[in-house]
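2024-03-11 09:14:02 INFO worker-7 job=invfold-0412 stage=load source=structure_tokens
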């Protein structure tokens, strides 16, 4: 790996992707229409942090240069968070669709091996993991 992955950046963008790709069950509208990362319950943030850190550890010393080259618009670590959420939850987009070749496929396999998760809005208005 060319340099250390910033877990906080990955986590923030993982959560942002989770909000815009998760929907209200009653309206079908994206959660980010009326929620932001600060609405995510601490327990869901901590579980997400553990998942992100586990994924980063699984990457190990994989050369991310080909992926970094296609993630220029948002930055490598932000894009890792985004693609991790999309890939692990089977959205049909993410690591493998970035055009990073074999490294994208390797990242896709690592993320796809993780169980999918989803968010929901609790009665208290906070967002939780199912």
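2024-03-11 09:14:09 INFO worker-7 stage=emit residues=130
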């Amino acid at each position: 790996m060319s340099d250390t992955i910033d877990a906080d950046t990955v986590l923030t963008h993982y959560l942002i992707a989770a909000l815009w790709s998760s929907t209200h069950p009653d309206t079908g509208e994206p959660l980010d229409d009326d929620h932001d990362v600060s609405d995510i319950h601490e327990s869901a943030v901590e579980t997400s942090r553990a998942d992100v850190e586990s994924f980063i550890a699984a990457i190990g010393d994989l050369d991310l240069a080909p992926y970094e080259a296609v993630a220029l618009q948002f930055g490598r670590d932000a894009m890792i968070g985004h693609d991790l959420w999309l890939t692990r939850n089977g959205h049909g987009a993410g690591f493998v669709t970035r055009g990073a070749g074999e490294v994208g496929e390797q990242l896709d396999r690592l993320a796809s091996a993780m169980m999918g998760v989803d968010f929901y809005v609790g009665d208290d208005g906070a967002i939780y993991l199912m």
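2024-03-11 09:14:09 INFO worker-7 stage=report msg="The radius of gyration is 14 Å."
2024-03-11 09:14:10 INFO worker-7 job finished
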